[in-house]
Amino acid sequence: MKKRTFLLATLATAVGLAFQGAVQAASYPSKPIELVVPAAATGASDLSARVFARYAEKRLGKPVVVVRINGAGGYKGSRTVREGQSSGYQVLYTHQGLIANYLTKVAPYSYDGFKVGPAVVEDATLGLYVSGKSGIKSIRELLAKARAEPGKPKATAEYGTLSHFMFLKLQKEQGVTFRLMDTGGDAAKLAALIGGTVDVMARVYSGTEDYLGSGDFVLLGEPTGKRAPNAAEVPTYKEQGVDFTFPPYLWSLFFNQNTPDEIVERWAEVAREVTSDPAYRKEIESLGMAWTYKSPQDSAAAYASIQKTFAELVDRESAVAKQ
């Protein structure tokens, strides 16, 4: 009898929660929404979030306000959304930095600490750059130098970021060793390569065009299976005979666990509409990025695959020298 009563109570609770979620979704949104970006101003996350927010609010009928909460490699912003009780009024806009934070013990949770929403932007152009003075012209030449002088070539790899994981994957798969150095964020990386503090840098293509045009930098290719749409003139490593790829940045929406599934699905519908809009696509491309759409299910599957790849890398030596 007690067991039957417990089961009935449990069922009643589940039905009640489902009904409550449906009611919340039916009136959603009833107030402005915060799109939380755990990154600095004017970076790729901030700029693409602002474009997406403008197109999303047209379809939602309420303001979508970009709020930057930076710090601790993105952990501060992601924690704000994860611990919030907003039920869809705080939405996290970020990429697989969530996974990197977890695997490097910056955060106690990964992407699956959230309800995963749709993906709306990607960038597969995290390529390797060397100085124009180095004499190196191809990825094969860089790898040959690294094999000949293990641990000597210096690479700027901000600890716990995707550039860090890229170098770990490159070292593991190509049998080379770089001296990994944390010189700071993107601006500091550019200065380190120009000043000769490092020999190689990993960075996305957008924002490097002037350095390439002047001959200050040489881009050795892109880690994509096929040429990236936002850097179609740049050959892949595979085209050069080097079998190396790396997952693209994948900007997705994330929701705290108390958000009703119906609200997550509402955002999936909005994202489908936004990413089908030619004007949105054009604006994203003007940022040097690529538009995409992945459903919440496909986005979660992509993150699971990336986490599996990254987890296999942190079992190895992953220290980065602080500068």
From TrEMBL:
Keywords: Receptor, Signal. Residues 1-25 form the signal peptide. SUPFAM superfamilies: Periplasmic binding protein-like II (SSF53850). It comes from the Bacteria. The keyword Lyase does not apply. PANTHER family: BLR1237 PROTEIN (PTHR42928:SF5), TRICARBOXYLATE-BINDING PROTEIN (PTHR42928). It comes from Azotobacter beijerinckii. Belongs to the UPF0065 (bug) family. Pfam families: TctC (PF03401). InterPro entries: BUG (IPR005064), Bug_dom1 (IPR042100). This is Tripartite-type tricarboxylate transporter, receptor component TctC.
